[in-house]
Amino acid sequence: MLRSLWIAKTGMDAQQTGIDLISNNLANASTNAFKKINPIFQDLLYTTIRAPGSAANAQNLLPTGLQVGSGSAVTSTERINVQGPLLNTGNAFDVAIQGNGYFQIQLADGTLAYTRNGAFSKNATGQIVTAEGNTVSGAGVIPSSATGVQINSAGLVQYTQQGSTALTQAGQLVVANFANETGLSALGNGNFIPTPSSGTAQTQTAGTNGMGTVNQYFIEQSNVNVSEELVKLIAAQRGFEINTRAVTASDQILQKLSTLGQ
Q1: Residue 20 to residues 11, 37, 125, 237: CA-CA distances in angstroms?
Q2: Region 31-40 average pLDDT
Q3: DSSP state, 111?
Q4: Distance between CA 11 and CA 20 in Å, rounded?
Q5: Does the model's pTM come out above 0.70?
């Protein structure tokens, strides 16, 4: 069997994975705080027929040698954590981080997770929660008698009550950062958990020590550039087509070989 068939097959697999990732980016172009994901391509192992630098004869060494590759593969993905644009929603419980950092939330099983999606709301007990009902760490409880809620740039949550302009503190949003945020593991719903690659969560007050600031009434939008993704999609499609042509060419060679001696 011709080696080129299998090499072209790895190329088609790699391009298909790239198309899958681009499709996911496009599907999340309107998802709050979504960060686009790029594939990382690498070449596969090489068959060394003649090693570079080996002896060509008694006096000379081969300047290059002879190596044949075995194709390509997507070996990893990279999340591009560039700030998305901020959208003013007018909702007092909507918050966005301008700069570095993640909001800390508690999942239903008690696991601490982290998100950039600050589309929060208040539940029946007055807790500030995510759209999935997960509690936002440090936000405190807003009583039913509250007439207004203020969240400042440091993440301090305060409220007012009827007949008074005095602010009462409910809590302080927990904002965290990581040594390698691209190493976080995505759970879906915009939530992430730490891994050995990301390092442990480093909590800081928003606006201090390089941490971003909290912006009330805003939501961070997706950082996907639709035009850019469409161009990448066309390039990936062409790459797939080129590999199918290599398969066709190899098939034609096999057809010729099969007719020899007949």
Answers
A1: 14, 11, 41, 11
A2: 96
A3: -
A4: 14
A5: yes
